[in-house]
Amino acid sequence: MNELEEYKKIVHYMLDLHGRGTTDSAEAPYRHPTWTYTDEQLFEIEKERIFFKEPLLVGFSCEMANPGDCFMFQDLENINVLMIRDSEGKAHALLNSSLEAGQVSAGDLNKCGENIQHLPCEEKYGMLYICLDKASAVNIDKHLADLTPWFKQWDLADTQLIGEHVWDLKSNWKLALDTFCEGYHFDILHKDSVGDFSLGNISQYKRFGSPQRHHRMTFPNKPMLDLRGTDDKDWGMEIQTHFQLVHFIYPNVSLLISPTAVEFFVLYPGKKVGEHITRYRSYWRGDINRASWSGGGAKENFDFIVYVVDKEDYWVSANVQKSLNANRRKFSTFGKNEPSLINMHRNFLSAVGLDPDIKEAPDWEDLTGDKSTGPVAA
Ligand SMILES: [Fe+2]
Q1: End-to-end alpha carbon distance in the chain
Q2: Which domains does the chain have, with CATH numbers?
Q3: Is the predicted pLDDT of residue 272 greater than 80, yes or no?
Q4: From the CA of 313, how far away is ligand 1's center (Å)?
């Protein structure tokens, strides 16, 4: 993959969209049933069939750079996974092991105790993946599919953690994810922050994966317009500062890759259907002293993003959830300019065995044959 040529294609595509006064669109609007954000039984089946079955991106290599380094994954209820790098440098995911065991073992897994259970785990391109289903395997290349060349090119192993912020928020995990999937709210909600430099309501939308469950939204920044009419032979790698690549990595990650940083948002169901956890980590790529594409340093960039998400996006998300809990409206309409939301939610419904065009909440008793136990795993 020629990274610069790919970025040139993106700029040409975005300038064309802007010139035509349009954005990538779905074929039709979609009426999305709001019970999907409030139904307790759907919530349980999502945990079983999505979070306990699918490969999950839980972090990046820099978080355990050396043999013996470890960290805990505990973001799903009743789950404790020790991520540890062994004495030969290989990453492992150990179920029900403690951080203390990892620190005692210092990379020698024989010292973690007799009853350690390995979970499927793979590390590639600086990404750490696990799967909570012991019978499954993790294959990052297969999971990323046609996104693989991008991550291979970026190689996110050369990053360092700048900061972490965790939200334990009263909004459903899918509702919180929605905020990362469209750009028309930039001008309104973020008018004094992100909206100040971005071109609102214009985005390139591309689907990736097999099936196509991942997506990438490209959001342009205003200075991109200065490239119009210039010869692209003169364009260099600096053109990647004129847009933002925001990936949705199925099922629960929003990943913004900029020339200087990786903004990793990973979302998990909370204790109840109307609650979730977002773990945000910001990583710097390469030299820690170089300024971000917007001019600030690494810590300033991290603080800015926490502020925007906390005071703007998630403030709205929590208030929308309150209204959904009150069951005041049966549907949210996703417009043609929100293709990513449409595809993402249709995939979530398919993943739990429901028709993506479903409108009314199903009779779970009919689907499971036993209402007392709720939905069962596939
Ligand atoms: Fe936002």
Answers
A1: 38
A2: 3-54+141-351 (3.90.380.10), 56-138 (2.102.10.10)
A3: yes
A4: 5
